[in-house]
Amino acid sequence: GLQADLKTFSAYGINGKSVATSITIQNTIGVRDIYDLPWKVVEQQLRAIFEDGKPDAVKTGMLGNESIVETVVRLLRRHRIKNLVVDPVMRSSSGKSLLSAKGIEALKQKLLPMAFLVTPNLSETEILSGVKICKASDRIRAARALLKLGAKKVLIKGGHLKGNPQDFFFDGKHALLLDSDRFHVGDVHGTGCALAS
Fold it and tell me: Distance between CA atoms of 133 and 24, rounded to whole angstroms?
């Protein structure tokens, strides 16, 4: 995820900085193991970045657990970050849990209310909104539920749909369906991260 974020920022001429929250052991087949870093290590990294100056925007990805979520929230509030994109990374494509149950609750209650934009995939949308997505109209109900949690705008990523992907954007007034052809580029990880970036 971090590598995909930084590559995306670079491609758009953005000077991205990163904070590692967890170390994953993975390859193109899947995630083998995960080691969440201690929250104090995450805090030290964030403090070092903020010492260089306030960023124009922040994007979160895999946060691992409740302590890391709360650390990120505390520092983002302290530095009054307005342009926050929350990519609520919860599971790997191979099914490995990437955010604890308590971490999901902390994300819902503390981080989402700060989000300018939240970018969940379909599974993450169902978990966060409590709305089962069986048909296209369910996405608007789910997006409304995410706005009620405090996010300003929602982009539900549709890359896990069969056929061509359809992303769905909603800001409380305007709904927009974003169709695209599916690109087959082999085993690539971090496509959702790249889109959120």
Answer: 29
Q: Are 99 and 63 in contact (CB under 8 A)?
A: yes
- In whole angstroms, give the CA distance from residue 77 to residue 111: 10
Beta bridge partners of 97: 91
Phi, psi at 174, each rounded to 5°: -115, 130
Residue/partner pairs of 66-70 with CB below 8 Å, 24 or more apart: 66/100, 66/102, 66/103, 66/105, 66/106, 67/39, 68/21, 68/22, 68/36, 68/37, 68/39, 68/42, 68/103, 69/103, 69/106, 69/107, 69/110, 69/111, 70/39, 70/106, 70/110
Q: What angle do CA 95, 165, 140 make, to 5 degrees?
A: 90
Cα 13 to Cα 8, 10, 137: the distances in Å are 9, 5, 37
Sign of the torsion angle spanned by Cα atoms 50, 55, 60, 61: negative
Per residue in 25-77, pLDDT (tens digit) is: 888 777 888 899 999 999 999 999 999 999 999 999 999 999 999 999 999 99
Q: What is the pTM of this model?
A: 0.89
Q: Which tokens go with 155?
A: 């982009």
Taking Cα atoms as reference points, which of 107, 39, 90 lies closest to residue 67? 39
